[in-house]
Amino acid sequence: MTGSSQGPEGAPVPWSPPTYQESCNPRPTPPATAGASYHAYAAPPSIEFEFHPVPQSPRADQHWFGRLRMKTETVPQLMKDGFAITPESILREQGCVKFTTSEPEEEWMKERWPYTRHYFLRDPNTPIPAPARQQREEGEGKGQETQTPPRWMAHMQCFAANFETLAQIRLCELTHHQVDNCTASARGGKGPRIYHFDRLRPRESINCIYDDLSLEGLWPYPKNQEGFLEGATRRQRSEAFTSPLLQGLIQRG
């Protein structure tokens, strides 16, 4: 037995070294690549989540905030299956910290949150391909494609004022209550918007694919719970479609 477990009376069992078989066949640890696999996935993001750790509070009052951008061509499937961040989906060896680089309209972020922690994630249900050297040793990769592309890959950026805050972030603890904004686009991010949620304007939420289907995990709308997020009344939906903001989004496509 390797590792540590509980004995008959709850006492911890002393650690024991790995077996001979485990030593001869260790699981390879990937190198630290700072998101190389995500950036090599040649596709624009099609889903974006923005997180506020303190729900209902404005961004200026947050001690950090997060932005997750996902590359996928299976948005409807992710709506049906639900989406959540799990330990198995985080590519630990690809994470890093950099100085904040933001869009031009968010230049102020560099002063308030000068540091950004980068996480990279992938669909845990798609096998991670073996390194090229291992494939060659096993005789794979000769005249055929041996790597199955993941259903999705994602890049999570967490912006904060210091390393201490960034070190305390635990992605797997995030909930849909902390989603401040979420959008999704068709055709692998190249098409028009098909999903929109803004916590400040809940009546303008819309799912163009499944309407009132309750979405699981981090999807913020719709949810099977009391309140508007479980689905608006017909009158509220009519009011939402006359909203100048939503009309502008539809016209921009």
From TrEMBL:
Mark out the compositionally biased spans (Basic and acidic residues): 134-143
The highest taxon in the source lineage is Eukaryota
Region annotation Disordered: residue ranges?
1-37, 124-148
* Name this protein carries in UniProt: Uncharacterized protein
